[in-house]
Amino acid sequence: MIWVWTSFIAFVLLILTLDLGVFHRRAHAVTIKEAIGWSAVWVTLGLAFAVFVYYAYEAQWFGLGAVADAADGLMNDGATAAEKYLTGYIVEKSLSIDNIFVITVLFGFFAVPPIYQHRVLFWGILGALLMRGVMIALGVKLITEFHWVLYLFAVFLILTAIKMLVVKTEHTDPNKNVIVRLTRRLFPVTARFHGEHFIVRAGAPASYESEIPGSIAMPDEVVDKAQPGTLLLTPLALALVMVETMDLIFAVDSIPAIFAITADPFLVFTSNVFAMLGLRSLYFALAGMVDKFRYLKVSLALVLMVVGVKMLLAEWLKLEIGKHFNFYLLALVLLILAAGVFGSQIAERRALSRLTNR
User: Fold this and answer.
1) Do residues 344 and 265 share a domain?
2) What are the DSSP E strand ranges found in the chain?
3) From which residue to which does any coiled coil extend (predicted)?
């Protein structure tokens, strides 16, 4: 079993190294066309991995599928494992879209130049993968030893869905974020960008004048009087801190959602990894269009609710529909997301039509 984990992690590290060290070695503003192309690459990789999942679990390579899934008590053969992986991948991918809305606000607040946004997202997602790996390991252990935890997760998901539907989301002011305030208190922060660096020494030439509020950074006169050589955090570092913080918050919702589908650690981890790997490209592809998808948040809330209900009724669904009931869950999730996208497009066209007819 350890071989498959080692190989997968090595594969992820390889493609991340190629991504930053070869394809995005030079900082540049990512165009929508480039973002769509890379999004297609990441989605293709994520979907293609389902083929490996099918054959690995069907033949029980590396011991995969040899132990009953703690989420539903079923043995995962090739078809069942592929269904769970794809369902988990789609759910995690869709929930990660909500993250894009927040990242857009954060980059705007910190005035992060487009040329450096990819770098922040790269390291932010790398940190997010590490955090999620720890959370998944703890979650699997809890579910294996205390199956009733699944019902707590289910109730949590349903309540979160209701909150998303009825509570109006307000943009969070990073000035009030505890993590940012603590970071600012522990480390001196310059208000100036220094290329793609997260940390610089006092006296280093700035490359970009920041527009972020002065309360986030140390006053310029304090930074200017810092001893030469003193380590300073740049606005990029604060943006990275906020991206990591927000992903941790979103992970609290998304990790229980995947456990509604499977508690197999390999399926949980790999579906999360592939969903997160494409988040950067998806951000650049959708960042300028987030306001046009007005019903997407409603769709995401309904997905959470469906997943939570499925978690509560898993035993009954298994008896009534059969062991492949996750296939129907996958179809329902795709239908809800498609309805949100098409509904948003129709509403957008009607709004434009009203403006044109005035």
Assistant:
1) yes
2) 192-193, 199-201, 208-209, 231-233
3) none
Contact 281, 44 (CB under 8 A): no
Q: Which two tokens stand for residue 84?
A: 């769970």
Same domain, 132 and 38: yes
**pLDDT tens digits along 277-290:** 888 788 887 766 66
Of 328, 257, 266, 261, nearest in space to 50 by CA: 266
Same domain for 59 and 124?
yes
Whether residue 172 lies inside any domain: the answer is no
User: What's the maximum distance between 2 C-alpha atoms anywhere in the chain?
Assistant: 72
Kindly give, in sequence order, each residue whose CB lies less than 8 Å from that of residue 71, ignoring residues fewer than 6 positions away: 143, 150, 259, 260, 261, 262, 263, 264, 314
Q: Is the same domain home to 207 and 258?
A: no
> Taking each helix axis from N to C terminus, what angle separates 296-312 and 314-321, rounded to the nearest 10 degrees?
80
- Assessment of whether the complete model's pTM goes beyond 0.90: no
Contacts of 79 (CB under 8 A, 6+ apart): 54, 58, 324
Q: How far apart are CA 218 and CA 22, in angstroms?
A: 35
Q: Are residues 96 and 205 in the same domain?
A: no
List pLDDT tens digits, range 269-320. 999 999 888 887 888 877 666 667 778 778 888 888 888 888 788 777 777 7
Domain coverage including residue 200? 178-233
